[in-house]
Amino acid sequence: MSDEELYRQMVAGDGQALALLYDRYASRVWAVALRLTADRTVCEEIVQDVFTRVWTSRAYNPDLGLFEHWLMVVARRLAIDHVRKQNRRTVHFVSSNDNNAATRSDDLTQIPLHVDFDEPFLQQDLQRVMMELRLEERQILKLVYLEGHTLSEVAQILSIPLGTVKTRLHKALRQMRVGMDAWRSEVQP
How far is 159 from 78, CA to CA, in rounded Å? Predict the structure, then answer.
């Protein structure tokens, strides 16, 4: 049964549908939380928070994308919120003259994707698409999505205007979507 069908059943009050979604995605949600918090105990709390939010909010719209993608966004946002509340992350601002800044921000050759992929080459394709982006776009993606910085923090870290951060992020996401759409058409009949 598809995720979307299970979600519809869950919205109708079927607790078993939620249990099936939990079984499918709890480990992936946990991996997202671990990548952002580095705390296994906190990950368990975040997993529970994510599925509680799924059960209570009913915010998913199948017309806007896949359930799995929406769920990972919810997990990421809750994990980042938790990190911010606990002040566990220290933001180190670097000047534009710091030669190590570009190296640290562009270390994307090994994207830490700790998710069990259904398709064997997905991680390789993600990295290929990432490497096709300009350095500035990769830096912003890494700072926002892998390190959990806000857009304002990224603007300060890179010493560029907030509007430039938003523009580069939007362009990078658009290019990644095009690259991954090509991947999707290759693997689906």
Answer: 27
Residue that wins the pLDDT comparison between 179 and 143: 143
Q: What is the mean pLDDT of residues 14-35?
A: 92
The token pair at 71 is 């769920």
Could you tell me the domains of the chain? Answer: 3-86 (1.10.1740.10), 99-187 (1.10.10.10)
Listed in sequence order, the residues at least 6 apart from 159 whose beta carbon sits closer than 8 Å to its beta carbon are 95, 96
* Number of other residues whose CB lies within 10 A of the CB of residue 172: 22
pTM, two decimals, is 0.49
DSSP string, 85-101: HHT-PPP----TT-HHH
Ordered DSSP codes for 54-97: HHHH----GGGS-HHHHHHHHHHHHHHHHHHHHT-PPP----TT
